[in-house]
What we know:
Layout: H1 6-27, H2 35-49, H3 69-78, H4 81-94, H5 102-126, H6 129-132, H7 148-173, H8 178-181, H9 185-208, H10 217-254, H11 261-276, H12 280-292, H13 302-305, H14 313-319, H15 322-330, H16 339-345, H17 366-381, H18 392-402, H19 409-422
Helix pairs in contact: 1-4, 1-5, 1-7, 2-3, 2-4, 3-4, 3-5, 3-9, 4-5, 5-7, 7-9, 9-10, 11-12, 11-17, 11-19, 12-16, 15-16, 16-17, 17-18
Amino acid sequence: MRGTPGAARVHILCAAVCAVLCAAPALSPGAGTPWGTLGLLAALCTACELPGRCRFFGRAVPVSAGSFFPVLLTAAFLLPPSAAVLVAVPGALAGRVDRPPVAARRIWRAAQLALTVGAASWTYALLGGPATLGGAAEGAVPDLPYALVPACATALVFSLVLAATDGGILVTAERVAVRHAWRGLPAGSVGPHLVHALAGLMMAVLWRSSYGPLSALVVLLPMYISCWVFAQYHRRQAAHRATIRALVQAVDIKDGYTRGHSERVGRASELIARELGMEESRMEALRFAGILHDVGKLGVPTRVLRKDGPLTPEERRVIELHPEYGHEIVRGIGFLDEAREAILHHHERLDGSGYPYGLAGDRIPEFARVVAVADAFDAMTSTRSYRRGRPVPAAVEELRRCAGSQFDPRMVRALARALDRHGWSAAANTVTSDEEGPGLPVQRPGSLPAATGSPDRPGQQR
């Protein structure tokens, strides 16, 4: 456990001691522990984990404990609490660990799952769950649908204990603030754990039926396959995020003026999308559009992007090609969907005076109209090397002034409502150099002000 923070060591040690104390009754002579059932369930848990350590399978199999949660809940339904505690230990100790310290992580996982299964089994016994399975008699008929009540309560306790222990290790090992450690943990896991509980209940019913333990695999195999499918989905999502992160980093390296700007535009675009009531899948695509809206700057000469003085008309025309460059860069990235159109058209104006195609009104894609507002808002509120950012109310008022000519009024209203509801962190919007927004003049240190109006006024065309 070398390298583990002291608080985390104490936390892990306490969890391990509690797990041992919970399992002690099952290990005492004359306890009548059903070792056959316990051994088979422990073997199933371990079998679900071992493929993750096999080089033949690599990462193409689930590596999280979610793949054997139905088995753990089956143990909570079939075994006394002290025996159920032991089922999780072999699989947790044998499972793959990707990051050091390996020993500490394995001990923690074994103790955490042991305590979680023990609490779930205790809850099931307290609510009379074993009786709803037909008691100890072989072939007894389960008391359905009443058996669902203690099973669902068991799943809830399982989820809460797992979330509580996860939050505790985040505080002690990862030094996450207490107020953030448990945020979203129970809410995001109760649903899946209820599904796992139903699968575990079916396994327990089949286990006690005349068909015996082998029939329980009929439930486990489809459940394991579904976990594999979900694992593949999450890996694909991680690959998508890595692709976008690489593109944004490439832009940041080439043009320091945009550093941090892309992420903030993505965040503001997502705020607008939520206010508009978009579906989750479209919100994610819109966030990607906001993050990647300036990726076309990779095709603009660096000398133009980093020029300190005012741009010549020819240089301005070169910069105005960046939406088309961006569209070409992401054309082959299928998962971006509507985001590609936003990248191409986020500099169009509602009155038709924008670029690259001079689209007007509803001919401008919805995503592009959202990103245009988010882009301008961040450009106005960001502090730059030669001037402070505008206050959020002033920026919103300027957006309202330009609504109908440059910006879609519906998007402006949605952003204003989102800001009233969630606020906007000014500390996150500090940059070291100029960032450009749609229709904003390039006003770098040493250049002359625009011919009309004030610098960074959204109503002006870049």
